[in-house]
Amino acid sequence: MDNSVCQAYEDEIQALEEEIKLLREKYEDNQQESTYFSDEEILKALKSCRRETQGEAKGHESLSYLKAQLETLETDLSFLMKLTGFQFTSHSKKTVEKTRDRTVQKHKLSGKCHSLSFQVEFQLLQMQNNEKVSAVVSDLNIIMESREDSDVSKFVTSTEEHGNLLTFFRSLSTYAEWHEHRRRTFLHFK
Known about the structure:
It holds the Pfam family CENP-P. By secondary structure, this protein is α+β, with helices and mostly antiparallel strands.
């Protein structure tokens, strides 16, 4: 075989390896990016799943196990929503940068806490040193329905500056619960 034919094959192999690498990266990004569905869509999927499992033979152990596990998860989700008041309606995650010991992802959450709507956008930097993983929140942006209240506006601004998501969710839960109580009380007196 002459050198020009060998070179052509080597070039083709290199091009295919590059294409495989790009496709693998795209696949990994698609696996990491996720969008969660609304409660209605989840309930439709659950009902559809139930119909399928009821229509199939009941002798399968794995089918009954999955059905029991699904019911347990539904119960746990319902309990957590009642306990915290949070009801997430959507979530999306996009990987911005990924290296061997560092990952940067953009997250976008929206939902309701009692009767207050919110939307949170942030960037999460995860770093891995040896066996220890640390995470840092940056570029926090909070959009709330009741920003006209000056106390809420100050709190949201402060939380965005400090990038403390845990404080935001804890405080929002308490505030929204009492906001709901005040709203009901004022409706009672109208």
